[in-house]
Amino acid sequence: MPGRDAVIVGARCAGSSLAIALAREGWNVTMVDRDEFPSDTISTNLIFPNTVSRLDQLGVLDTLLTNHDVPSLGFRIIGFGHECAGGFTPVDGFDKLISPRRIALDNAMVETALAVGVNGRFGERVVELIGSGTSEDPVAGVVLEGGEEIRADWVFGADGRASTVAGKLGIEKSNPMRGEVAYLLAFWRGIPNDGYATSDIRDDAILSSWAAEDGVHLLTAWGDPEFTRGSKDELLPKYLDFLKQFPETLDQAALANAEMVSDLIVAPETLMRGYFRQPAGPGWALVGDSCHFKHPGTGQGIGDAIEQSIHVAEGVSGKDPYLSGYGDWLNGRSLQQYPWSYAWGSFPKSAQQFVGWATEEDAAQDMRDSFSRQVEPSQVLTKDRIERWFSTA
Predict the structure, then answer these.
(1) CATH class label, 4-45+101-177+273-339
(2) Whole-prediction pTM value?
């Protein structure tokens, strides 16, 4: 194969969005993924209005909605019985979230990338890099499992937590964080869509429930790290019993008649530990979970991947051709959101903030808008609100 402008390793949210953005800038792009598409991957699936807008700009939203019935949802938090629910401050006209399964979303992203001229190599593994990634020996391409070399000016790692690109470059993780929850999830048919993505939060358990696409519904059970230990045969009864403990949130008659249409998916606490990696160097850069991972409690993974990819594409296309400012941009964007995600990835110790959100609509709106990255966490839990809410505890 002739030399390419870019090879992207990984074709899901980060890889496909980067490929689309680069192709629109006139780049000759090859995208390699070990999986064939459509295929699924573990995810909370949440896409907030800021990212719905990005999908619209990339052309992915049209592809997704042409192929699937994807409902728009409000956002509901129930904490210790205190409920607040509503939409988001609009972003480019979008004021609701969506939550399609990754088998639908990722396939729409791949289809859109191929439609704008990206070359796709699926079911193939990258096993080596050409070049060591130093200034004396920049990365200059990849080697596939069968021995084929694909030369390129840039190699982008969009290949997840266990990134082959990061591993071959010896890029270590830094700034670790961890939460205290693990979860079990499955997809169902027969659960009615009430128009909301709901999380019902207790001091030792959390139920998340929302519609995905094409009549499929996600039910996630969050517990402590012990909750996910055991075989799937042992965990399935535990999961089903958990769902029965939330009758106010989950219609038990509907649940009894519903069908579980996926395998039980197990996400141990260890899968949700956060980190940063050095994001760029001579001839290479990382996007998505390859370079940074937050706790999925705030559902930022898809949005982060797309924002990083668009930033990188704009950078290497002229704004920052060596990506020398990428690390500072990434750190600044994550400064508050990183610990905020791990606050949501831990069991609450008090009901007071939920009382505040349930009784003060402006505070509830700020909380919702923190998920769509319009409000920083420090604007949600201001000093005034903390003093007012917690002084009565």
Answers:
(1) alpha beta
(2) 0.96
